[in-house]
Structures
1.
Amino acid sequence: MLMKSHTAPVRSRRRLGTNIGPSTWLLAPALIFFAIFALVPLLGVAVLSFMHWDGLGTPSFAGLSNWQQTFTNPVTLNAMWLTFAMTVLCYLTQAPISILVGVFMAGEQKYRAVYSVLYFLPLLFSAAAVGIAFKALLDPNFGLSKAFNIALLSQDWLGSTDLVFYVLIFVISWCFVPFHSLLYQAAVKQIPTSMNEAAMLDGAGRVRTFFSVTLPQIKYTVITSSTLMIVGSLTYFDLVFVMTNGGPGNATRILPLDMYLTGFRSYQMGAASAIAVILVVVGLAVSLLLNRFSGTDQMESQQEGA
Amino acid sequence: MRNAKNLPSSSSRKFSTPRRLLVSAAMIAPLALAACGGAQPGGEANGEFSAWALTGTQQNAFKDSFAQWNERNQEQPIAADFFANDAYKEKVRTAVGAGNAPTLIFNWSGGTLADYVANGNVVDLTGKVDALEERAIEAIEKTGEVDGVQYAVPNNSTQPVVLYTNKKLFEQVGVEAPATWQETLDVVKAFKAEGIIPFAVAGQSQWPYLMWIAYLTDRIGGPEVFQAIQNNEPNAWSHPAVTEALTKIQELVEAGGFGDSYGSVVADANADAALVHTDKAAMLLQGSWLYAGFKADAPQWYEEENLGFAPFPTIDGGKGDPSNIVGNPANFWSVSADASEEAQQAAFEYLNDYTLNEESVKSFIGLGLVPSVDGAEEAIAASEDAGFLGYAYQSVQSAPNFQLSWDQALAPDQAQVLLTNLSQIFQGSITPEQFVEAMNATIK
């Protein structure tokens, strides 16, 4: 399915594409949709980032003042730092767990299917519901600590600046590990059994097989999942909004939340738009970079020797 | 910023509508994605008579009142929609900005109403709702004025903030409800020694913190201090009363006055009240709307007459009148300027004849709420909640000043900075001086 020789087949494929392949016009509906629902609003936001608007009157031209405010406002700068920290920590927590759970779910153990269903459950819940549920569970007086009668669980989970950030990372990971595990499970299942058998015959143990066969074989899934995780954390919003609303103080006011609160609580639509533009640019840049450096565009086979 | 858009109302607004719509649509699309959308707002057609109000305790009183109107005005019924508090505040402003506001706009007066007025979104009610103005308590009705002109009229109960006490715990520890700040500190010590949280406060929700700073500032420096802040006088936050209030808050936090996990307590599900009625906390500074919550959530505890209430303690040498109160004087109806002529006429008629009329007052009292009208003494005395309602009603009527919640009184962007910084004061992560500096920067 993947091209290794670069001569004849490529030419023949190109000819096929121009003559027999579907008309380019079939792209039109998707493109029009994309233009109306993505490009036009994006342009609107870009324009609005140069204006003052409180959501009620007529927007007035503001020049660069929103941008100046965005890059000098300590709250927004802190939000950028928090977003960066959240992205890194989320990735470092989620990636290893997802790979391990994914590999486990692809195996043949007893009760594997039962475990898989359990792992998969959080994916079915809406983020708002998860947020509200965790808010209740983490209540220091009536939550988990009371249910199990364990004093250690009665911490100021959402009210202490030192704890709240890690609590959020935990809940976010709890929500998203199942999805990424699913990706890895599918990837691991696609590794031909002959490779594992060959490794076994060569005397490789479980750990060695994992590092020398499984990991290299699921390389592209790692890249896909990493892109989703990193870009996802950059724009992460709903759980944080429901659970902490950015508090206590500014301790969890990440950039997307900063955008929302600036826009819909402070009604500074111009400044909120500037933050939105930053988010779009950074998100696009990061996913492009990930693609470029990870070599997904080079299309080499993963199954040499299979 | 607000003045810049104070344009001549009708003509310029008409021409800018398409552009405004385009910009608002463009603006809202990506942000709405983040906001998770939600249902389409209901009463959008400008021709029909529509009203938006809040879910919760008061919902039924509004429903009854609307039903009463609908029964007698079948040719022009009210299309009513109810929303949760926070979601409502965002939704209604977007709708007002886009010219799709309901005929009757539920609001808190204060900063947002001033924005509506500056943009010509609401109708001048002077002389149009005299009958309602006659019924309403005058001091409350005055809160609906912007620059001396009536743009909003009270539509429900008055909501002073009172100090709820758990009488059982007070008896157990052998102390009295504190009347002065010194007594407050003593009582805190006594409860702490018994392992009881002295004051419950829902810190996760942030806004309950405002009641503390508002009461303390008023008791120490009088209403003029916040008045100057609200008027955007330069460096108004530097008034020593504000610094002293913040210092007292931090003093109380350090003394363990709020326990050690108040930052995770959420107000939405009345977890702060639950601390009191499960005998974990002795006192709670909260709005009068919570009384009904106590009664509903802990009927047995309430039956045993464990719920007490007291005014906020006085402060030695303080300038403010000890009978001043803070809270929400009431909620208000404003009439949308974008509504059709017929809808506006119907709205005036509804306000005059149905809002807070005799039946409506009765249904508020029945829900354990204090109606914002004069002459309700008899109806209150006859109700089963005569004790609390009578106390709250009397304290509203005898208060020389009823301070509107600070987050509502200020412009929305200032209110946000206030909530964040106050939350940091309660955490002890900033000093009163840093707070004052941050808040002075919001004066415009």
2.
Amino acid sequence: MGARYAFRFDQSACSGCKTCQAACKDRHGLPVGVLWRRVYEVAGGGWERVGEAWHSDAFAYHLSLACNHCAEPICAEVCPTGAIVRGDDGLVRIDRETCVGCRYCAWACPYGAPQFDERSGTMTKCDLCAADLAAGRPPACVSSCPMRALELVTIEDGADAAGAATFPLPDPALTSPGLVVVPHRDAPRAGPRTARVANREEVAP
Amino acid sequence: MTATHLGPSAHALPGERLVRVGCPAHNCGGRCLLVAHVKDGRIVRLEGDDRPDDTPADPQLRACTRGRAYLRRQYHPDRLLYPLRRVGPRGAGRWARISWDEALDLVAGEMRRVRETYGPGALFVPYGTGSYSQLNGSQVARRLMNLTGGCLGIWNSYSWAAINVATPTVYGTLQTGNQRQDWLNSRYILLWGWNPAEMRDGTNSDWFVKLARERGARTVCIDPRMSPSAVSLADEWIPIRPGTDAAMMTAMAHVMITEGLVDAGFVRTHCVGFDASQMPAGCDGEESYRDYVLGTRDGVPKTPEWAERITTVPRATIARIAREYATTKPAMLYQGYGMQRRAFGEQVVRAGCVLAALTGNVGIPGGWASGLANQPDGGCGWYVFPAGENPVKASIPVFLWAEAVLRGKGMGAEHGVQGAERLASDIKLIYAVATNCLVNQHANINRSVEILRDESKVEFLVVQDQFLTSTARYADVVLPACTQFETWGVEDGWKYGEEVLLMPKLVEPPGEAKSDYRIGAEIAERLGAGAAFTEGRDERGWVEWCLDEYRRTRFPDLPSLDAFEASNAGLHVKPVTRPAVAFADFRRDPEGHPLDTPSGRIEIFSKALRDLGRPDAIPAVPKYIEEWESPFGPEAARFPLQAIGHHTLHRVHSTHDNNDWLAEAFPQRAFLNPLDAAPRGIADGDAVKVWNDRGATVLPCRLTQRVMPGVVDIPEGAWWAPDAAGVDHGGNINVLTSERWTPLAFGTAQHTAMVQVERA
């Protein structure tokens, strides 16, 4: 237990521009179809015609997600080969030598973080730009955000993670993610019956 | 929770060279800094601005997703590597590789032949923004033309046609904007059709709105589409029927007038034409703005009820926004540009400016005069590279190039011709550099290519680009240009930027590709103007020349090129600690600092427009005018939906369409409201055909609540991909758009288009 890294995501300011996603792909040389960082568009609401006027309660917001380097990583729990390990530094890593590419971790992770890379035949995911981090530099996604809506912070285990339950995120109690979300004003309106991920094809290629 | 304090991100790996470089400019709306990692003659990574400080006065210029994904374009397998000559009919897509000598001899020979046969006015360099640094792009072709006898000129732009012309009719200038650091003083911001999160409109403009909100400004976005700006920058989104913004603005004026919310003192001392008491000389008794709004003459009071029927915005909402904007001081009404690329696009520009005047938001910190809003300190310098003087004085509006091909000889002022009574020739030779405006980006593609196919009209078409674009497919000769990473360049901030960005050559071009400048120089050499063209300078030498020019005009502390390059800073910034406010002098002393309008005042009523004698299309006061294609006309029976084409982050116009990372991030889709999809039996993800009498495009749809009913949104710029029957499968909206131009600015009205949608 103790301080660990977390992404702090200001959802209220995220425009969904996906600069973080491109910066990540550039930093790690990722091919199409491998998205260590993804941006979900959540949308809901509808329209009503009243006379000549349109009344709308439509809403939308974004969710930029990578790997949350959970304190209780379920990906590691389900990995049959023990390829996924949470290190002393709090970073959850996949050992590509040990990984057999079975995708159990992708099915288990409620954040969609592990991504199969056909080139290596293994699972891959965000490593928090560990090499940069070790040298005192921020992850590529964090320094890229044109809205300055993504930060790397340190949190104490057990810190209030209420925002990290914003739809469609799971209950953070499941894995204790390193994720702090400042919710968009419309996030409280969103739930399984009132909103949906509107850009599914863009986040799950 | 604790913020981490990490240093700058850029760091070279073994064998890498780090070079700070201006992001290749493609008219994206921003100018950002990249840190290129160069290894073994190849760019291997692109990072963003890594300066440690990030302040409003001197913010980091963080590149967007397109800049960060640039290497997918830079090293695309489809890059043009050799000159090509067409074999077979024009547009058939069959090519033969030729040598540079053969290609340039042919081009120079045709330039000479056309000039001698038809005169210099038969040569034409179209509008183009595909490469946009000082040393890359169409301006080097203009220099070539100007030094070898001239060519038919152009005026205005596709982007800002109506706003360029309409803004000065109110204010006498285009410099109507406060510097962005002043936005932090605003209490209320209307993002009216304005979407900086996606179309940029200056690097960091979206971030400055965020800062203004953090300081307490309330923000409202008015747009047919819940844009990324509506989602991330606005407290409220108000959907409005496309093409009716001027109606809502007029109704807001009605609320202000009838509820006593007009800043009467400011209007009295600084404006003309608001009411009968202040009509310009010679216009007494004419319809004032107040007359129009209240319906004194036409019997139609422009109430919120009136506007609700037109705009679909609830009347109570219109009245509320009018009150909020009029009573929250200071306030900004920032106009986007999409709504002026429409039929009668001049009206919405003038109507917005008038609202700013009626509320007294002109010339004060935190206010905003509306209109184009270039910078009062002279920013937005565009070209300093010397294209020279065109010996041909005649010019056409950029949007009317096809008319000048069809019936150029004899075209005159009725088609916007300037500098000559009539054109002396049709266009016979086109040298298209860094432009896709002949096909992909121009209105009514099927008409455009029909015109280009006719070899008796345009006899010779040269296209110079990095890919075989839709326009290049109609070329007789294609010249492979290098990217901006492969030659020298320099640029200044886009609209707002107080910086100069250096673009050193990073890597060699692939194949035989050359810089736009080098190609121009080699053609000039063949036409006997080689020395005049180069003046002994190479690309780097001209960058040095441009730096001298910047230093002389706007950036007195700009270092020498040698020092600039050695520092590897990549940019030179003039921090803004005391943001300029447009019209501050005029505000303080309208007699001593009159505007450059005929009256010296803000012209709510324009006598100059009145004197044009076309009140139905160019009224003296801004009016809502029903568009020539609209949901209200008979055309709506067959084509009931309005098509709009937003600027997507997938592309910069048509540039980057083939970038696979960006296509993955923002696949090309027709966005449609479920209420329009259901009766057509269309489900999310279905392929749909969007069509009208001008053409058809087939692409997958996405059903979304973020586009209002009655509207189909197809992001502009997708590469036209016709099948044998002429149906496009690339999702290009311009098979649907009309070549009809706006009445005053002769500008594009491509967003005014009615269509039908069905399952494909």
3.
Amino acid sequence: MKRIKAVALAFLIIILAIQFLQPARNKNGQAVSKDFSKVFTVPGNVQGILKKSCFDCHSNQTEYPWYTYIQPVGWWMDSHIRKGKEELNFSEFGSYSKRRQMSKLKSIGESIENETMPLPSYTLIHKKARLSNEEKDLILNWVKNTRNSLSLKP
Amino acid sequence: MKNIILSMATSILFLAACNNETKKTEATSGADSTSITAVDTTLKSQKESPIQNILSAYLQLKNALAKDNDKDAASSGKALETAFADFDKSALPGDKAKLYDDIAADAKEHAEHIGANVGNIKHQREHFETLSQDVYDLVNAFGAGQKLYVDHCPMYNENKGANWISESKEISNPYLGQSMPTCGTVREELN
């Protein structure tokens, strides 16, 4: 019992110590001229869903739930954000070439359709990021229409 | 006491979860050196096209997908990524170099995803579709140095259809693979 107590105490100290190692917050208040919404016409309801389910990891505007201030949850979140932004950053969408913008749009539709995004391991805890079937359909329809309208242009 | 142990267990789980993901990508990027050399030596015989290495890696990828082989597709994807990165554009005039950069930035990403998705051939094929458009534009800009065919599969992706580029006139469908190997038609011939 003594040993268990000692081990538990050591763990507790480690957990307490790592609370001081907070990753930098991914929040950028600047006006966003390269934002996704400046590249495409994004209706309010679509924008709302993207904000709720995608922007936390795929933009420069993460909304942090309280528990991300607790380590190691915050680190875990930080790694998701870094990987997410590398793959697709809605805040800097305008800096992609036209070709890549269309590629990304196609992939957005596919990953939502295949339910690989939002990441199941992420929505396990961040329940508010989950997409309902109606929300999925809304996004998919918008992606389809946007892709069609753009591919018709010469 | 119980609570403390429980909270520790959960936090360790979190750490374990994100560590796993990074390990996976590392593991897949380890085994790429063998396939690259193989690509370099094939298809060197005909008159040289500047995009020879890119093309042969693409065609290797296409043939792997036609055989439903996700592992070979991944190693070809990595070879293709390398071919794009190693491409020497120093001899190109400015506008062509710019066009190359535009196409390569997109295509490299698709190649990378194909390389990282062993076990998910559906996803590999999604990226292959866009990649095929990139390679098509590349061939139009730089020439192929060999005869190529643009093929079309009308059934892929719930009948939305998709194109690919092939070195042979016979259809060998990379989207539907062995379930419908000969589905598709030749749309265009490239020289």
4.
Amino acid sequence: MSARLQLRDLRVAYDRNLAVTIDHLAVEPGTLAAVIGANGAGKSTLINAIANWSRAAPRLSGEILIDGEAVGGKSADHLARRGVVLVPEGRGVFMGLTVEENLRAGLFAARAGGRAYSLADIYTLFPRLRERRSNLGGSLSGGERQMLAIGRALRMAPRLLLLDEPSIGLAPRLVSLLLETIRALADGGLTVFLVEQNVRAAIAVADSLYLLERGRVVASGDVAAMKDDPRIIEAYLGARN
Amino acid sequence: MNIAQQLVNGIIIGHAYALVAIGWTLLLGAARLVNFGHGQIYMVSAFVAWWIMSMTGAPYVLAVVVAIAAGAVIGAIMQRLFLRLTLSQDLVNLMIATLGFGQILEGAAGLTFGPKPETLTSPLQAVTFDFGPVWFTAQDALAVGATILVFLGLHVVLNRTRFGAAVRMVAEDPPLVALYGIPISRVYISIFAFEGAAVALAATLIAPRTPILTSMGFEQVVMTFVVVVLGGIGSVGGSYVAGLLLGLFTAIFSALISPAYTTAAVFALLIAFMVLRPGKLAAGGNFAR
């Protein structure tokens, strides 16, 4: 069985500046992989490249494979319909649409490949969204907006859920709640590729970790081994004692 | 002066302005784009209807349908031609390109239909209603009724349907639309096709009031521009109100002062509005209301 996501010799550049270089990266189906790293390490550039979505139109080369199929060059809307669903940094919900309109707006194809969550499923997962179903996206709190963003993504039957910094700007209690939900989704069989600056939170939920520095993976492996990696402890977790 | 008749004239002209402007309003509100070939689509649609009727003897209703289809096709062709400018929101080049496209349409229409004024005949133009000092034709009533229906229909589509939600999404954040799996070029093509179809409908309903000329497109662009700006740049409801008020203003101004200065007076009004209330000119996220 092939990996859900494979990157081979991926290069992402803005003008002539190489922002991300990934020689090889693979995420198995039903697992939660997290990319951690400091601000500016290239995490968002990497996750946006997988979805072929960017406001800055970088140059891409190399191979991106989803279930063994090369998808490099496919448009972002095509990939979204085929189940490669990105929740971008800043949530990516429409402020002028109500919660329910946001949840109904997505288009996905039968070939998306994942489980399509119904509106009722989303409201069960995030009861707060049911209460606010008629409110505009712009009136939601940061946490509610993130729930809506994930709910919208689940409606699109994702095979691969790409999450860019879901914890950013949220209170610690909400971060735990959201990441527990994401973990539960992965336990239910969804493949999740998470980019996260909050390293402790990422370690708490991920199966595998990739440490990104200046656009390159400098360490990777199972989370059990990686959390003892001295580079991670020193740079992100502080001293052991 | 017959004030009541002038008010009726104003209401009819105002609805005509609003109907001509509705497509451009949606284009500006949803796609933040302009189309200075708008008036020439109006002209071509009127001539298509006239040509169908005079060449084939088709009834007016069929000519209206064909003209609407032609308008939609012209709009869709424009969108395909200017797709790159549309996607990059390159407003200045799009303005120039659409202006040029309009001139090509005008030249092609001149070659095809000739320089003479023609008359688009509607059977409803001969049916009149007299209420004491006030009268209007069935064609006028049709134009007013159709305008109200088109505005209400657009309001419902924008606010109650999934397609309307997609249009509002494009208005708010075009790149983000792709992440919802929606091909943005299809939304843009629908908006352009609607613009063409709506202006064609306007042409076929309004053109029977006056002779049609292949040079009449520019006048339509000028008045549409005023309606769209006064209505709140891209506000659908605002355009309806602005069209109506502008119609009343031009009818009463023509009667009280002179029809010769009406266009100048309209622009004086526009400039005054822009100077005094510049903050009220953008509909922003409320365009669909």
